[in-house]
Amino acid sequence: MQPINDRIESNVLIVSIEDTKSLNGSTPEDIRKKLQETLALHQNVKGIVLDLSKVDMITSTAVATLVLLRKSVHASSRRLILAVVHPDVLNSLKILRLDKLFEMSDEVPGAVSAIASA
Questions:
Q1: 79, 73 in Cβ contact below 8 A?
Q2: What residues have CB less than 8 Å from 4, skipping those under 6 apart?
Q3: Number of other residues whose CB lies within 10 A of the CB of residue 66
Q4: CA-based R_g, the chain, Å
Q5: Which residue from 55, 67, 105, 117 has the highest number of Cβ atoms inside 10 Å of its Cβ?
Q6: Which positions ≥6 away from 110 have C-beta within 8 Å?
Q7: Burial of residue 7 (number of CB atoms within 10 Å: 0-12, 13-18, 19+)
Q8: Tell me, what DSSP letter sits at residue 53?
Q9: Is residue 28 within 8 Å of residue 15, measured between CB atoms?
């Protein structure tokens, strides 16, 4: 199984985390590298939607990966929206006060529309 899948829709890159083990501990460096490679391949998109629908917990290493991803995306003047964030993941982000740092959406299509129409 690929750790992430990506596709373009309305000039927005949608990245879906498919293998939660890669985000939550077993190979966090691999997922970080794969995300960076994917972003490098799609530099002309308006923004990125990170579909977290299959992620039901998040480690500190995964949080660091998300923060670095946000920094990278914003440095290139693009938007990052976390979509379909599990309540436990959202709670972890709230405890760390990172829920204010990340833009979030309850659904992938809504996140794509928000970026595409901006």
A1: yes
A2: 15, 16, 17, 18, 19, 22, 31, 34, 35, 38
A3: 22
A4: 13
A5: 55
A6: 83
A7: exposed
A8: T
A9: no
DSSP for residue 83: E
β-bridge pairing 47-51 and 4-9: unpaired
Query: In degrees rounded to 5, what are phi and psi of residue 115?
Result: -75, -45
Sign of CA dihedral 98, 112, 15, 56: positive
pTM of the model: 0.90
Query: Which domains, from first to last, does the chain contain?
Result: 4-116 (3.30.750.24)
Strand partners for 28 = none
Place of tokens 């982000």: 93
State pLDDT tens for residues 30-87: 777 888 888 888 989 999 999 999 988 888 888 888 999 999 999 999 999 999 999 9
DSSP characters for 79-114?
EEEEES--HHHHHHHHHTT-TTTSEEESSHHHHHHH
Residue-level length of the chain: 118
Q: How many CA atoms lie within 13 A of 29 on its CB side?
A: 0
Element housing 14 (H / E): strand 12-17
